[in-house]
Predict the 3D structure of the following.
Amino acid sequence: MLAKKQKVELEMEFENNQEEKAEAETTPKKDMEIRYLPGVGPATAEKLGAVGYDNLLSIAVASPGELVDAAGVTELASRKMINAAREALDMGFESADQIMKKRELVEKITTGSKSFDNVLGGGIETGAITEIFSEFGGGKTQMAHIFAVNVQKMKNEKDPVTVYIDTENTFRPERIKQISTGAGLDPAMVLKRIKVARAYNSDHQMLLAEKIEDLIKKENLNVKLVIVDSLTAHFRAEFIGRGTLAERQQKLNKHMHALLKLADKHNLAIYVTNQVMSKPDVFFGDPTHAIGGHIVAHASTFRIYLRKGKKGSRVAKLVDSPNLPEAEASFYVEESGLRDI
């Protein structure tokens, strides 16, 4: 009796597998679900989906180690899944004119200053990381508040949302109200469209960055700007001494790449503020250098050095960009936002 029952179960399982195989063969590759990838059954697909690997692209750009940790599969199985996903998406070389067409989807968030916008080629760019570093009191957090409001000025965007990861307890809704009123926007509406989370350590900060995907997919929010203020405060406090430098840089690198992946995948802008240090061995020129070293420098698409100017003004210098020349813009930071000199 038991053997007969097992035989029936095996036959049913075989029929289901054949049906899934036939369905996979008739499904267009790009629309294929992850359950049709080799080595992925319903249980594995559910595990992967629970941690954000719910489409072919997320599998294709993952590393084998990530899938091993997420679903408990072997490294060989994870490599097969990744290769099959990449093959289905035809992830190879593409011509420069195709990339040019994709670049047409890039949007700009105005800074509120015409001269600053000109330096940035129109404003804060989506699909990229913009880093601003300065000494304390330079205006980094003020910029974060201003950009969070200016997102609402984006054209053809339905209910744009800002995600604000606050690591230093510097977010102030009162400041948002001031800027919104000065910009002619409804403060109550702007406040509702800013999602704020307080990060208490570097691991929490990295976790919050990963949770943004849930806001976009599960809550269906149109996130257009992610602010991390500041990027390096927790890493600087937790990893002290040369012995911990390698671990700190590895975690920072992982965090920055997660942010860049988020920006590229969902065409949103990432704005991060960074702290600085003064190098005592610099005898000529400005001894101010950003924290994070080459890891942060290479991961940031645009780098801006913000310093105090004459009569309370601020000077923003674009020090690194893939397509724009070095340039400076001067402006005042006022109650209603930025004002050109």
In short: The chain has two domains: 2-89, 101-340. DSSP finds 14 helices and 13 strands in the chain.
